[in-house]
Predict the structure of Metal-dependent hydrolase, endonuclease/exonuclease/phosphatase family.
Amino acid sequence: MISISLTRLRTLLIGCLAAAGLLSSPGVALASTVTQSGDAPTQHVRRPYSLLQMNICDSGYAGCYARTQYPKILDEVVERIKANDVNAVTLNEACSGDVAQIARRTGYHFRFATVIYNGAPLACKTPDGRGEFGNAVLTKEAIKASEDAPYSVFSGVEQRRWLCVTTARQVDVCTSHLSTDGEAPGSTNSVQCAELGQVLASRGRPAIFAGDVNRRASCAPEGHWTLTDAAATQAPGIQHAYGNLTSPSLELEPTTYTDHDALVIRAGLPK
C-alpha cells in the first residue's frame, strides 16, 4: 500500500492545477493555510467601545500644516476610522467644513466646537472655504445631546474650549485642546486641566475623553483611568485619554500627514 501525506498530496494537486492552467483561472482559489481537524479558528475579540484620537493640524496657520499635504490628511483620517471601525472619533486642530466632509465619507454623526481667536471665529485657510477652526467629536451612534463651553482662563489670543456629546448608546464622548503655557501650578494649562476634570466628573454616565492636553500630568478626575501617548514617535506624552469605562487598552499608530501619532482606545462598557 502506498502512503502519502496530506502535505505531499496538496503539493501534487497544486502542481497538477498549475500545469492545467487552473490556478490563474478567476473561478479557482486555494487556501494558503490548512486548519487541521480539531483546531478551532481564533478571532480577535474587540472590546465593545472604541475611540480614535487625532490632532490633525488642519488650520492652515501652524508650522505643521505643510506636513498635512492637504487634503491627504483628510484621507488619512477617513482611512483610520474605517480601518479601526471605532465607535467615536475625537479631532483637535480641525476645520468645521473638513469635519463635515469626514462625517459624510464615513457615515458618522458629529458636533463641532469653534475656537474663538482674537475675539472671533478663526477661518481656516490654504485653501479658504473650509469652515472655522476648532475641535470635533464624531460618533457611529446617533448624538442625542451635546454641549461645549470655554474655560475660565486662556493664554494669548486663543480661547480654549471643551466639547462633550451624549450618544444614543448613553455614552458621553468628550474632547479638548488645552493651552501651551506649561503645566506648572497656576498656569493657564493647569487651571484648564482642573476645570476639565470637573466637567468629566459631572457627566453622570459612562464617559470617555481624548484630546491633546499639552501636558504630561493627568487631568482625570477621581475614579477615571488615564492613558497617554508617552510611547509615541511624535510629540510623546501630551495626548491623553481618560474614562470610567472598564478594562481600557491603548494602541498607538504612527501617522503620515500630521505631527502627532494617533491613539486608538478600546474599553468595556460598565454593566
